[in-house]
Specification:
The complex is a heterodimer of chains A (489) and B (94). Chain A is of the alpha+beta class and 489 residues long. Chain A has three domains: 288 residues, no CATH class; 126 residues, no CATH class; 58 residues, Arc Repressor Mutant, subunit A (Orthogonal Bundle), CATH 1.10.10. Helices cover 40% and strands 18% of the residues of chain A. In chain A, strands 1, 3, 7, 8, 9, 12, 13, 14, 15 and 16 form a ten-stranded mixed β-sheet that branches. Chain A has a three-stranded antiparallel β-sheet with strand order 6-5-17, with no helix packed on it. With 94 residues, chain B is mainly alpha-helical. The chains are: A alpha+beta (489), B mainly alpha (94). At the A-B interface, strand 2, helix 1, strand 10, strand 11 and strand 18 of A face helix 1, strand 1, helix 3 and strand 2 of B.
Chain lengths: 489, 94
């Protein structure tokens, strides 16, 4: 049987984080009462003229610069015509043959383009259950209408649903750290459509594609793409053809239905927007955009890996959550050049994050990511650096270190003082530990006998006895070393 | 030039309902308009940039500063049909 592979391209719409709409000064506030942010321009009244929001262009250029795309020197807008109540003018002002950004790349996926346009309004379908029995009407809220959008179009370089969703996570984190959008999928500030086709493995051509619309979570994106790929493969295996169409995935039933509401409207009749002559991108705007691009997650992960020698996994964890990365770097600065950077990464990425997340779960009121920002916790970077140094120098063992961290998370303070206060200091050098080990060996002659035959397994009993005697403050490795030394092994 | 089918297609896209006796005259008129424009095709325009607009390029961007919106009553007052808080339209899914 012929094996097929999916060929997937994504189209992502992100609402740009401006204060006002794309072409008028109406304020953008999510969640306000319907139709409280409209004016003659965004309601499409005759005789009004759109004026481009410079900040939307600046944010769009930042996206392009972050992806290494070619930035347009002038802004050219087109009208994309279709009739639907979410567009009061009967057309959307968008870009066509001269997008703001041409090409570019993020991670493992190349980009075709990024263009800017205005968002449509929000339509609520009252349906048959509405007030007027039997009749169907819809209500339009034009608050969202005219919100600046960047549409990011990838090349068809994605080969699986999992790749699509993990790349989308990277995109979302990159846009978040760029600060160009809230990238909140539930509120719709980041929306994703997927163009999907299949082809026999080994082929290089492209099959007929379908467009799967508006999947609003990473899970739905994976489920939707997998369902559509399976549908196409079974169609083709049954000797049928894939029809080019727009589809809707229903996550509750897992079914895919054809969207007929805009049928026949793919003839968008693009033409240059006569109300807006082409505008040169002002030099100051371009320079401001270029200067505003920070170090992005992929670059930072690469730096953590190559310059600081972190494992891939730690590097990505710390780079993909900016608050963690910033805290990590602050801790390194406090720890000095000799610090074990991987150890610092482990203490932050594993131990500290786990404790802060547990703390958040106990506090129902806060569910945003900022509540696990270590910088907002009671553990200062200096304290964490000190803790890692104490464990590194074997002044305390790791277990005791974790107890110290518990106290730091709950109360703050200085690790040295906590160690002192709780009596957690490791039973110091060999001088202090040797008699304790000797006593443990004396008390367990059967174990000693086995150890002498080269069977080191029962050494756990000795370590256990020493730990008990020292209340857990001994270093396990040191106990083993002393045992070997005493027995001459 | 513009035939009957094209007229009907464009009418559908534009949500226009044409009477039977309007179709042929419409096809003739649209053909005449396009025919007139096609006289441009007689010129040698190799190497000439397409003109999207006759105005010269000039910066016309707006600072991202909020301006007052319309009071909702006034916005909804323009609608042929409105609910308490929105513009009511025939459901496009009906």
């Amino acid at each position: 049987m012929t094996e097929y592979e999916p060929v997937i391209g994504l189209e992502i719409h992100v609402q740009l984080a401006t204060k006002t709409k794309m072409f008028c000064g109406c304020e953008l506030v999510f969640g306000d009462p319907p139709n409280t942010h409209t004016c003659q321009v965004c309601l499409g009244m005759p005789g009004t003229l759109p004026v481009v929001n410079a900040e939307a262009i600046r944010l769009g250029l930042m996206i392009g610069a972050a992806f290494g795309g070619k930035l347009a020197e002038r802004l050219v807008f087109h009208r994309k015509s279709y009739f639907y109540p979410d567009l009061p003018k009967g057309y959307q002002i968008s870009q066509f043959d001269e997008p703001l950004v041409d090409g570019g790349r993020l991670g493992d996926v190349g980009l075709e383009r990024v263009h800017v346009e205005e968002d449509a309004a929000k339509l609520t379908h009252a349906g048959a259950s509405g007030r007027i029995g039997g009749s169907t009407s819809s209500v339009v809220d034009y608050n969202r209408g005219g919100t600046p959008l960047a549409e990011i179009v990838t090349l068809p370089e994605i080969r699986s649903a999992e790749q699509a969703s993990s790349w989308l996570r990277l995109l979302r984190e990159t846009l978040r750290q760029l600060g160009v959008s809230d990238v909140n999928m539930e509120e719709g500030s980041l929306r994703c459509d997927a163009n999907i086709s299949i082809r026999p493995v080994g082929d290089t051509g492209l099959g007929t594609k379908t467009e799967l619309k508006n999947m609003n979570s990473f899970r739905f994106i994976e489920q939707g793409i997998n369902a559509e790929v399976a549908r196409q493969i079974s169609l083709v295996r049954a000797g049928e053809r894939v029809q080019q169409e727009t589809l809707h995935f229903d996550p509750r039933t897992g079914s895919i239905t054809s969207l007929r509401s805009k049928e026949g409207s793919h003839d968008y009749r693009y033409f240059p927007e006569p109300d807006m002559p082409p505008v040169a991108v002002p030099k100051e705007l371009l320079e401001s955009a270029l200067a505003s691009v920070p170090e992005l997650p992929l670059e930072r992960a690469e730096r953590f890996r190559t310059e600081l020698g972190l494992h891939e996994e730690s590097a990505r964890l710390l780079a993909f959550r900016r608050a963690l990365g910033d805290y990590f770097e602050a801790t390194l600065a406090a720890a000095g050049d000799d610090a074990d950077k991987q150890q610092v990464a482990n203490w932050i990425g594993n131990d500290l994050v786990r404790r802060l997340e547990a703390l958040r779960r106990d506090d129902d009121a806060s569910d945003d990511e900022s509540s696990t920002d270590p910088a907002a916790s009671k553990v200062t970077p200096q304290a964490l650096a000190e803790l890692v140094a104490l464990v590194g120098a074997k002044t305390i063992n790791r277990k005791a270190g974790e107890q110290v961290l518990d106290v730091l998370v709950a109360e703050g303070g200085s690790p040295a003082a906590i160690v002192e206060d709780k009596g957690l200091a490791a039973v110091g050098g060999a001088d202090e530990l040797r008699p304790v080990v000797q006593a443990a060996l004396d008390a367990n002659p059967d174990v000693v006998e086995k150890l002498r035959t080269g069977n080191m397994k029962p050494i756990g009993a000795i370590v256990g006895a020493v730990m008990k005697e020292t209340k857990g403050r001994a270093d396990g490795g040191e106990v083993t070393r002393l045992t070997r030394e005493i027995l001459g092994l | 030039m513009i035939d009957r089918d094209t007229v009907l297609h464009v009418a559908t896209l534009s949500r226009l309902e044409l009477r039977d006796d309007e179709i042929e005259p419409m096809a003739r008129e649209l053909s005449a308009v396009l025919g007139h424009l096609e006289t441009i095709g007689e010129l040698d325009l190799d190497g000439v940039e397409p003109t999207a607009h006759v105005l010269v390029e000039r910066s016309a961007l707006r600072a991202d500063e909020p301006r007052p919106s319309l009071p909702r009553e006034q916005a909804l007052d323009q609608a042929p049909d409105a609910s308490d808080d929105g513009f009511r339209v025939p459901s496009p899914q009906a």
